[in-house]
Amino acid sequence: MESISLYILVFVGGGIGSALRLGANQVSLRLLGPDWPGGTLFVNLVGCFLMGLCAGWFAFRGGGTESQSVRLLITTGIIGGFTTFSAFALDTATLWQRDNGIASAAYVIISVAGSILAAFIGLSVFRGTTP
After folding, report:
1. Could you point out which of 10, 24, 37, 100 has its C-alpha 20 to 30 Å from the C-alpha of 69?
2. Domain boundaries, the chain
């Protein structure tokens, strides 16, 4: 029975994350227009930072058996529903197909390097605060 409840937690968290992603995309569309995939870039960078924070928290501060449920809700559910690397791939291809190779390459470099850097920063927040 516990296995089913974990799936429900991830399901609910994924819905929350997806709704947050939709909001971020709508705000980005209003602010930046349709020619730059700013919403996807934002959620990828923020999502990777949050994943790093959570990984650091659970590795250095979290504990106990109840943390497994919370970890799955937050990381697999909410953050998994929030980040959008499949959309990243489509946005990159779309920029490229519009004959905008420079924007496509810039988008890939900023997304990949920025996301990895954000995850390292998130992890480092808790490295210095471990007991």
Report:
1. 24
2. 2-127
- Residue tagged 């730059």 (tokens): 36
pTM: 0.78
The pLDDT, as a whole number, for residue 109 is 97
d(CA 85, CA 79): 12
| Both structure tokens of 48 | 């990777």
- Beta-carbon contacts of residue 78 (< 8 Å; ≥ 6 apart): 13, 14, 16, 17, 20
CA nearest to 104, candidates 115, 114, 96: 96
Q: How would DSSP label each residue in the chain? A: -HHHHHHHHHHHHHHHHHHHHHHHHHHHHHHH-TTS-HHHHHHHHHHHHHHHHHHHHHHHT--STHHHHHHIIIIIIIIHHH--HHHHHHHHHHHHHTT-HHHHHHHHHHHHHHHHHHHHHHHHHHHTT--
**80 marked as binding residue:** yes
